[in-house]
Amino acid sequence: MLRVSRPVLLGLAGAGLFIAALDAYVVVTLLPSMIADVGLTIDRFEQATPIVTGFLGGYVVAMPLLGAYSDARGRAPVYAACMLVFAAGSVITATSGLWSFAGLPWLVAGRVLQGLGGGGLVPLSLALAADLYQGEARTLALGSVAALQEAGSVFGPLYGASLAALAASAGGWRFVFWLNLPLAAICAAGLVVATRRATQPSRHANSSIDWVSASLLGLGLGLLVVALYPDDPDHRATSSLLLPAGIASLVVLALYGWRQVHRLEPLVPRELLRSRGFIGAGVANVLIGAALMVALVDVPVLGRLVFNLDQLGSGLLLSRFLVGIPVGAVLGGWLAGRFGGRLVAVGGILLSGAGFLQMSTWPANELALHVGFVRQADVALAACGLGLGVVIAPLTAAVLALTRDQSHGLATSLVVLARTMGMLVGLSALTAFGLYRFHQILGTPVLTDPNLRARVDHLARLVAAAFLQEYREIFTIAAAICALAALVMIATIDQRLRATAIR
Amino acid sequence: MAKLNTVSADLKFTKGAISFQGFTLVSAKTAVRLPGDSDTTYTVKQQDLAISLEVVIAGGHVYLHLPFSTYQEIQGSQAAAIPDLAKLFDPTTGLPAIIPAGRNLSDAGADKVDGVDVQKINATYSADQLRSMFAQLSSSVDVNAVVWVGASDHLIRKAQLDGAFGDGGKEAAVEVDISGFNAAVNISPPSP
Q1: pLDDT for position A268
Q2: A457 inside domain
Q3: Domain shared by A223 and A177, yes or no
Q4: Do both A123 and A140 map to the same domain?
Q5: What CATH fold (topology level) applies to the domain B6-179?
Q6: Are residues A59 and A177 in the same domain?
Q7: What does each C-alpha distance from A210 to A52, A65, A217, A221, A347 come to in angstroms?
Q8: B interface with A, Cβ–Cβ below 8 Å
Q9: pLDDT of amino acid A203
Q10: A307-346 b/e with 16+ CB inside 10 Å = b?
C-alpha cells in the first residue's frame, strides 16, 4: 500500500529526471571554462566534443534497458541505483582538472556515467507514472514526465550558466555538478522511503538486464562517434577511421536492431516497427534532434567566440531560443487539435528552418541590429525555438496514436530516444564538418603586429571571423535538415492523428 | 644542479593570478638546453578561454607560435618581453644558485618524487631572489618554499612557492616539477 500520495511519488521521480535532463545540456554554456580547466586550449576545441556526446551516448544506451528490469526489481531500487550512478558521474565531472590524472578522459568518463544514470531514469519515471495512474490520468502523467524531460533539456544551458555565475566564488561550473549530489540524494531517498511498502515486484517479469543489447547499442554508438570524430580537422572533414568505424558501427547497430526484432518479447512491437507513421516520426525526430543540437551547442559558442559575450551572456542569448520551445510545445498541441498534426508539424519545422536560414546570414555585429525595438537575432532565435517546440506535440502524438495506452510510456521513450540519437549523430557530424571548414576558412595567418598582445588580439579577430563563417554554414545545413524533416513528415505523418493503435 | 646541460620542467600556477601582457598564466611546459635555448609552451587564459603560446629560443633567436598560425621570429623589445624559462636554470641567477641561498632552512623529512628518494626542505626567499628566477613573479615580501632535493644526486626535483607574488601583490602559488636531467632534447629554429 502506498504511504504517500501519487503526485508526490511522481513528483520525486520527475524531479530526478528533470535534474538529469538539465545536466545533458548544462555543458553547452560551461564548455569553454570546463575545457580550459582540463588543460584543453582553444586550438584543440574538437577534443571537447565527447564531453557532450559522452553524456548523450550514455543516455541513449541506458534508456531502453531499465524499464523491464525495474518491473522485476522494483522501481525505487533501480531508480536509486540510477541516481547513484548519476551522482558518481557528477562527482567525477566536478573534480575534472583538479589533479594531473583527472584530465579530459576523466571528464568524459564522468559525463558518460551521468548519461547512463540519467538515461535510465527516463523509462523508470515513465513506468512509475504508468504504475500509479490508469486511464486518462495515465496519459496526463506520462505527458507530465515527458514534459519534465523536455523542460530539463531546454532549460539546462541557462541553468548551468546562471548557477555557475552565481557560484563563481564557490567553484563556478564545478558547483553545478556538486549540487547534483544533494539533489540526487533527496530524490532517490525520498522515492525509496515513500515506496518502501509499495507493491511488490512481479516475480514473473524479466529480472535481468539485456546486457547483449546494451553492449551492442553502446558499441554501435561508440563506433559511430569514433567514425565522426574530427581527428585531424586541419586537413580533412572526416575521421581517418570514418569507413572502418562507420561500417562496423552500422553492422553492430544492425545486429542490435535484428536482435530487437527477433527476440521473443521484443521491446518494440513488430507491427509498430513496420508502421510508416512510426518510422516517419522516428526519422523526423532524429532530424529534429540534430537541428536542436545545432542551436543548443553552436549559439552559445558563437556568443562566446564571435560576439564576445561572457558565460552568462551567451546563456542569455540562447534563452531567446529556449523560451520558444515550451511556448511552441503548448501552441503545437493546441494547433494540432484544430488543424491536424501533419500541417502543424510541418509548419513548425519550416518556421524553425526559416529561423536557421536567417541565422545563416548573421554578420559579426548581429547583436546590434534591430527590427523596430526588437533585436533581429532574438526574433530569429525565438522563431527557431518556437518552430521546434510546435513540432514536438504533433510528432509525439503521432507515435502515441499508433500505440495502446499501456505502451504510451514506451512510445514516449522512443521519441526521446530518437531525438537523442539525432542530437548525438548531428553534433558529431556537424562538429567534424565545422572544424574542418573553420581551418579551411582561417588558413594559416601571418601576424606581424608589434607585440604579443596585439598579435593575439589580431588572431582573435581572424578566428572570430572564421568561426562566424563556419557557423553560418552550419545554420544553413540546419535549415536544410529542417526542410528534410518537413518532407519526411509530409510523407509519413497522419494528418488526423487517429491511426489505429497497434497491439 | 650546476652541471646541468639539459632539463625539462612543468610549472603550474595553482593559486592566485600571475599575468604577463594581459594574459593569466595557467601553466608552462619547457625543455631547456643550457645556457640559453628553450622550447616552452605556455598555457594562458584570456577571460576563461585557454590559449597555448609556444616560444622557441634557439641560438639567440626567439620564435613565437600562436594557435592556428606559423612560427614567427620576434626581435627586440618584443622578444625581451617573452618569459625565458632557460633563465630558471641559469647557474648564477636561477634555481641552482638561488635555492641553496634560502633562509630559515629546515628539514621537512624524506619523500619520493617519481620514484627517486628526495629530501624535503622548507626555505624562505626574498623578493629579489624570486624575481631573479622568474621575472613575472613580483613580490615585495618574502616567499615561502618547499624544495625536494635528490638524496643522492642533490638535483632539485620539485619546488613549491607560496606567497604574495601574484598580480597586485596578492597570494599566489606555483609548483615546478623538474625532470629529464641531461636527457636528449631537440631544440632547433623552427621553419616558418
Answers
A1: 63
A2: yes
A3: no
A4: yes
A5: outer membrane lipoprotein receptor (LolB), chain A (2.50.20)
A6: yes
A7: 26, 7, 11, 17, 40
A8: 21-23, 26-27, 43, 45-53, 64, 66-70, 72, 74, 77-78, 81-82
A9: 47
A10: bebbbbbbbbbbbbbbbbbbebbebbbebbeeebbbbbbb
| Residue A174: band (very low, low, confident or very high) from pLDDT cuts 50, 70, 90 | very high
Q: To the nearest whole angstrom, how far is the Cα of A48 from the nearest Cα of chain B?
A: 13
A201 plus A218 within the same structural domain: no
pLDDT given for residue A129 in this prediction: 83
Total domains in chain A come to 3
What SS3 state is found at A405? helix
C-alpha cell at A321: 531560443
Q: How far is B104 from chain A (nearest CA, A)?
A: 30
Lowest mean pLDDT among A331-335, A414-418, A480-484, B1-5: B1-5
For B50, the closest of A36, A447, A451 (CB atoms) is A36
Pairing of strands B156-163, B19-20: unpaired
Under the banding of pLDDT at 50, 70 and 90, the label for residue A499 is very low
How far does A453 lie from chain B, in Å, by closest CA? Answer: 6
Range(s) of the domain holding residue A231: 210-264
Question: Which CATH number covers residue A65?
Answer: 1.20.1250.20
pLDDT bin (cut points 50, 70, 90) of residue A503 is very low
> What's the rounded mean pLDDT across residues A328-332?
86
Q: Do the chains contact at B68 and A451, CB–CB below 8 Å?
A: no
Radius of gyration of chain B (CA): 16
Contacts of A305 (CB under 8 A, 6+ apart): A463, A464, A467
Kindly state the cell numbers that stand for A244: 572502418
Q: Are residues A23 and A155 in the same domain?
A: yes
pLDDT of res. A502: 38
Q: Check whether residue A237 and residue A126 sit in a common domain.
A: no
pLDDT for residue A501:
39
pLDDT digit string, tens, across residues A108-145: 999 999 999 998 888 888 888 878 887 767 767 877 88
A contacts of B21 (beta carbons < 8 Å): 451-453
Q: Which uninterrupted H or E stretch holds A115? A: helix A104-132
> CA-CA distance, A77 to A100, in Å (whole number)?
36
User: Helix or strand or coil: residue B92?
Assistant: coil
Structural domain contains residue A270: no
Low pLDDT (below 50) residues in chain B: 2
CA angle B4, B6, B8 (to 5 degrees): 115
As a whole number, the mean pLDDT across chain A is 84
Same domain, A259 and A282: no
The DSSP letter of residue A407 is: G
Q: Tell me the ipTM for this assembly.
A: 0.78
Residues A9 and A145 in one domain: yes
* CA A263/CA B46 separation, integer angstroms: 55
Ranges of each domain in chain B: 6-179
User: Can you tell me whether residue B19 is helix, strand or coil?
Assistant: strand
Specify if A269 maps to a domain.
Answer: no
